[in-house]
Amino acid sequence: MPRLLPSVVLASVLLITLTACKAPSPNADAPEASDSDTTAVAFPDGELVDLSHSFNAESIYWPTATQEFELTEEFVGETNGYFYSSYVFTGAEHGGTHMDAPFHFAESAEAAEEQFTVEEIPVDRLIGPAVVIDVREQATNDRLYQVQVADFEAWEAEHGRIPDGAMVLLNTGSAQFYPDREAYMGTDERGEEALPDLEFPGLHPNAAEWLVANRSIQAIGLDTPSIDYGPSEDFAAHRILFPENIAVFENLTNLNDLPATGAHLMALPMKIEGAGGAPLRAVAVLP
After folding, report:
1. pTM for the full predicted model
2. Which CATH architecture has domain 13-62+97-285?
3. Which of 5, 95, 184, 282 is found 20 to 30 A from 174 (Cα to Cα)?
4. Which interval of the chain is the signal sequence (predicted)?
5. Residue 175 carries which DSSP code?
């Protein structure tokens, strides 16, 4: 499948129906959306870049996942004079290109009630200007590299302040290894015994704290299995971002095709009620 889809002329205005949410976002002052609310989001005409891996038998899941992706044929063939196909797919919510909803991690069960499940995330928080932080050189030299505050400051020194509502994308260069589990995540083993061998870059908790305290981003994504780096045992970056209802996108691809600034991201998950994660189709619109 080509990485760049054919050039298209996008509608100047995209109308998006917002879904109601059970809890207000601590990171935004906007009123709670109702089923009838709409918002207009303007996009420039431009080429589309698919940022999602296909789901198949090679899709990478977290080592402790009890169900990886499986596509089971119900019927494929001709019947009653026409062709018909039907399949059943199964898989854990955190695998392949997917979203971590804020409900995925919380400091307590009570705190989790204030954090969005997948279907509660307002659609306008899944669409916005893309900010691409290129740390490929650092991650090539150190597969356990954690993106630093200095990386964001260097980006801003060149491109200006990270805009409010930004969708921050961390390009570690890891997508080149997908779906080779050992090269991509440090091990091809499954189960708890695989966890100590995980090796891949992530976001340093200090940098997550800086983003939360100093910038107003809507979401953050990267081309590795987790926003926390491989050896993490406390998943601190997750736990810093999620109380602010900042969604996380993992196992992205084709980030090399995006400019540092100027693109727009649409990251729409399967709308699974009550879930802490879901398969994701992420698409960037180039300027």
Report:
1. 0.86
2. 3-Layer(bba) Sandwich (3.50)
3. 5
4. 1-22
5. G
